[in-house]
Backbone:
């Protein structure tokens, strides 16, 4: 795809905002080219504040390149990569319909169940998209791109009013694409609820994780209701999945044998063991057989009778959005990736490659259910061996990534001194802040706090209202002996606190949920109960 070729001489009229997210706004627009042919399209425009962040711009560029290569009927089609009003933008096909989150909410509001055959058909098309992204060889290439979506969830799968299914948002994808521009190996993307167990424990995301997420989406479609956040413990996770599958009814299979087979396939897709899950191409074959055997309405008929009226009611108001009504000229996006020229680095600052080890997990809100949560991280920068870590909390997501050059903002209140050493580790291990402002490294008594059972957003030791040590997921730090408050924030819960004394020789605690509202920590002279 040559973005420049499609961009020359094009006028873009933004009609109204369809959606607004962390990094971009999505608009319904009309293109007016020099040929006189007008088209209705969707335009994803990067928000202005991210325009100077090279990795965000380059990730948008990567998404467009990937989608241009992944020509498939169930993957949202990209038509151009351009600049609109000075901002990076992707021009893509407009799908008139609903995402699965909107569809399930609409069905529940009307006290209706999603027909099992429709749910299976939607999952079949979504699996076909994942299969094409990972296994198929695109035209002009000799090898498949091995694209892993990493954020399969209801809001990233759409059903049109004509029964077409599209998988959206490959901006978080990982692939073997040789033209990749973004250097964001330390980023962790995805919605916590739909992450496979191995991803929640720190894995960067493999093909089996996409199959797991699709299995969870299918299970929820068959229930027409959301599941809660599943346990991390392997045995508890598998028991919860088995129970949810056993509770399914009205699977529309012709007999008990087919019914049992469908339940078994669901269990395999949602296994805590990645090796036990089928691949997307196997899922396509299985779901195709289930769709052929299932009783109930066809997807196109369901779309006309249900999706169309629901979409009419939920369609955004015309003229809405900050840029609505504007007529803009589209220009070609420069071919050089942002930040790719070594001369752009500050003088005296060497360019650095991104470490390959896992980074701290950053997640988006959980879709649906009462456990809807997000990780909210205060905006700030801390130094990691001369490389800045920018913590950005914005609409619906919190992202942790590496940015070249010196930090450009102050530390969070109560954070570490600018010369502190901070280690970025996988979820469930610590990201220790070892030095209070003005302190010295590796002094004081060792403190270790590990949280089991549920993921911790942060773990802190506080003294006189200030943070003395801070960890994400767990805590490993050194502090002076004395009295502190131990504070822990579990994802989806209120923060809990309790007094704790750090003796000479240090303190090591293991904390587990005691009730829905409290944590119990053991390892000291006595158990400590943390409450809101």
Residues:
């Amino acid at each position: 795809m040559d973005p420049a070729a499609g961009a020359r001489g094009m006028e873009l009229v933004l009609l109204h905002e369809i959606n607004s997210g962390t990094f971009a706004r999505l608009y319904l627009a009309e293109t007016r080219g020099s040929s006189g042919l007008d088209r209705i399209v969707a335009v994803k425009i990067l928000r202005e504040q991210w325009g100077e962040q090279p990795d965000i711009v380059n990730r948008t560029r990567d998404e467009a390149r990937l989608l241009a290569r992944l020509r498939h009927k169930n993957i949202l089609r990209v038509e151009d990569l351009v600049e609109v009003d000075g901002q990076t933008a992707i021009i893509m096909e407009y799908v008139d319909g609903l995402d699965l989150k909107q569809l399930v909410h609409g069905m529940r509001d009307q006290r209706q169940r999603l027909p099992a055959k429709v749910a299976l058909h939607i999952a079949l098309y979504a699996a076909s998209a994942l299969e094409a992204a990972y296994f198929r060889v695109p035209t002009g290439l000799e090898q498949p791109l091995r694209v892993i979506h990493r954020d399969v969830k209801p809001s990233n799968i759409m059903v049109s009013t004509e029964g077409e299914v599209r998988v959206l948002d490959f901006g978080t994808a990982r692939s073997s694409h040789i033209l990749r521009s973004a250097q964001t190996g330390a980023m962790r993307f995805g919605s916590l609820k739909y992450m496979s167990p191995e991803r929640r424990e720190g894995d960067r995301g493999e093909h089996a994780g996409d199959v797991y997420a699709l299995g969870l989406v299918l299970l929820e479609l068959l229930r027409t209701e959301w599941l809660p956040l599943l346990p991390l413990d392997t045995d508890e996770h598998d028991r919860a999945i088995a129970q949810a599958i056993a509770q399914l009814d009205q699977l529309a299979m012709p007999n008990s044998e087919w019914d049992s087979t469908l339940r078994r396939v669901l269990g395999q897709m949602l296994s805590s063991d990645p090796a036990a899950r089928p691949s997307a191409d196997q899922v396509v074959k299985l779901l195709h057989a289930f769709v052929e055997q299932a009783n109930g309405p066809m997807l196109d008929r369901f779309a006309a009778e249900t999706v169309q009226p629901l979409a009419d009611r939920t369609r955004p108001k015309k003229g809405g959005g900050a840029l609505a009504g504007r007529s803009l000229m589209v220009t070609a996006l420069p071919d050089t990736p942002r930040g790719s020229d070594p001369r752009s680095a500050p003088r005296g600052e060497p360019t650095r490659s991104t470490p390959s080890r896992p980074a701290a997990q950053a997640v988006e809100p959980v879709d649906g259910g009462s456990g809807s949560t997000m990780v909210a991280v205060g905006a700030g920068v801390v130094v990691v061996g001369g490389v800045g870590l920018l913590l950005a909390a914005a609409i619906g997501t919190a992202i942790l990534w590496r940015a070249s050059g010196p930090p450009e903002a102050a530390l969070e209140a109560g954070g570490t001194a600018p010369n502190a050493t901070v280690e970025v580790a996988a979820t469930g291990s610590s990201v220790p802040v070892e030095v209070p402002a003005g302190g010295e490294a590796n002094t004081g008594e060792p403190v270790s706090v590990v949280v089991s059972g549920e993921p911790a957003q942060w773990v802190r030791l506080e003294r006189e209202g200030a943070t003395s040590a801070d960890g994400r997921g767990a805590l490993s730090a050194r502090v002076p002996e004395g009295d502190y408050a131990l504070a822990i924030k579990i994802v989806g819960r209120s923060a809990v606190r309790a007094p704790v004394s750090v003796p000479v020789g240090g303190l090591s605690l293991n904390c587990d949920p005691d009730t829905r509202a409290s944590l119990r920590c053991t390892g000291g002279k006595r158990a400590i109960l943390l409450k809101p």
Observations:
- Residues 1-8, 176-188, 340-441 have pLDDT under 50 and may be disordered.
- Residues 116-135 form the longest helix (20 residues).
